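Hello Y.,

Per our agreement to keep a running log of every chain we model this quarter, I'm adding this entry. I've kept the format consistent with earlier entries: sequence first, then predicted structure.
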Amino acid sequence: MSAKAFPFSIPLMDAIRHDYERFRFDTHQYSHQGLFTDGEKLYAVILDVENNDALLDELREHYDKYHTIGIPPAKIVGEIAQGFRLIESRSKLEKTLTHAQPMTIDETINLFVLHIPKKYHPFHVDFLFNTNEFNLTFKSELTRSEQEEVQLICEALGYQGYDFVFNVDLTMPDFPGKVEHEPNTRNNLVLTASGLMQKQFSKPLLTRYEEDEDFWAQNRQSVFSGDEVDQKSQYLLPKFEEPKSRCFVDASVFPRQNLRVYLTLYEQVIIALPL
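Predicted structure for the entry above:
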């Protein structure tokens, strides 16, 4: 479905579809037919609520309680009316890229820095809920082919249907080059883009980090989706292919305490040491 067929902007529709999918999982026992629009409003069709006001009220209360504040909810109805058009659920790619939920601004920026080549750094990304414009600002002017390359990357990340606008700001400062990693905070398990850490570590360490980064950028979807489980040897070292119970300890985030406990419970313990 094109952006013009949506009753709201694409960023809003992404959040709406997330809310609906969560609601549908929570109430999976009912006959959900999908999320629909008549061009102006949104409708969640559940056959069970037809002639059942008590259930309708119960489901409305549940939907209203858990949907994102500020995001328009769908109206729950019991039939697919004439003129309704089905809104497709988020694709496997969209769910994989966003951890199945809308990303924070930090996660979004990190994603673009991770995938947009360093020759285009620094840059600024801006897209608002009330518009379908996707504004990209660079420190120098991009050629038409370079703009098409960047746009293709953004669309491949799931940002499709936007009107891409390219701007130039000659005074734009470089990325700070350092990222603070604090224990037990959000985004600790997100792969930080190397483009944000160019002044933080030595060149040899950054080179090795970028090798892992390139692998993750290319294979993330396959690893998470399981589409190519028969080819896992492409992603894993030989020791990881053995049928063993394993535990991953991220010592760059969490204290390395009680390792003996892990060693007694698992056949293999993988430890990520602090950088």
